[in-house]
Amino acid sequence: MRKLRHARARWPDAEVPPDAPTWLHYELDDEADAVVRTVEVFASGAVHRNSLEIEQRGGRPCPSLIDCSLAEGLARVDLETMTLEAFAELWARGADTPFWNLD
Question: What is this structure's pTM?
Answer without folding.
Answer: 0.91
